[in-house]
Write a structure and sequence with these properties.
The chain has six helices and no strands. With about 130 residues, the protein is an all-alpha fold. The chain has one domain. Helix 1 (about 1-25) runs antiparallel to helix 6 (about 105-125), helix 3 (about 40-60) packs antiparallel against helix 4 and helix 4 (about 70-90) crosses helix 5 (about 90-100).
Amino acid sequence: MATTKMIAGLMGPTLLAIGIAILINAGHFPEMAKQIGNDPGLIFVSGILLLVAGLAIVRVHNFWNGGWRVVVTVLGWLAVISGILRMFLPFWAASIAATLGQSSTPVMIGALLPLLVGGFLSYKAFSTD
């Protein structure tokens, strides 16, 4: 459980910060998504970082036995898969980034999802249960 709380204590506040930053910069996100969509190299490098982060999580935390700990494991595997996809298919990922940036709905979902998951993980990481 200590490993789960440690990882959640890193992921939770990071996801909260991401969600808040997206909300603060919501008006600029379509332009940023367009820029990212025009830079497959940036997507490739972000894939490397996601892969390393995801592998670090699943190497020390690959628990599937129920409870909230599974959320940490799932997020680790999603990072691994997302990192591999960004590395192997950077132009495809760039086209998705450019397409998502054309509407405000993905921006709001992109803010709310990390806020909810980050809040949950932060609560679990820093609670005394």
